[in-house]
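Protein Record: Sequence and Backbone Structure Tokens
======================================================
Tokens: labelled as protein backbone structure tokens, with as many entries as the chain has residues.
Task: work out the structure tokens from the sequence, keeping to the layout shown below.
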Amino acid sequence: MDFIKEPQTIENKSMEIIANHLTGMELTEQAVKVYSRIIHASGDPDYAKIISIHPEAIAVGMQALKAGKPIYCDVEMVRTGINKRRLGEFGGEAFCLIADPWVAAKAKAEGITRSMAAMRAFAEKLDGAILAIGNAPTALFEVIKIMQESDVRPAMIVGVPVGFVGAAESKECLAQNSPVPYITVHGNKGGSPIAASIINAMLYMLEGR
């Protein structure tokens, strides 16, 4: 069986195919790159219909990444999917507390999810940082609550939790109430690979890819 084996050729061909699904959408060049990475990560062109990018989100996100601001993730799968080598070149680092024993104990004691406890543990550290939430709607709800009840303001939020309980609602809440720029997808779709792909899209743009 004959098939393409060279990684860069595979990626280039994939992006050519994806470009056909974005024709006529009047996206900025940067938005095209984010859309393309999301579709590439998911294998689902229908994402083009549900992605929502705040007008300032990409520029603010890239500026924060270039400045070496930290990324706080709701789950390890998001942190693992981020290109940490490239992130490290700008002095940045990705963090996740979902498996921290203190977070687990706090979640059990308070009757909340570990992702909520993790966001509370990050607390003021979220100010000026990037949030990447790809799994837990409760984490996104918690971050929105933190912003409403304090002066904490992340630089931008990637909020794409996946699922059937609270996911769509948390993302609508983000789009309607966030005081900071955000990137999200509407409905039940999303997930850790999507969150990581958005961060990576911005890192690759800084790299000139």
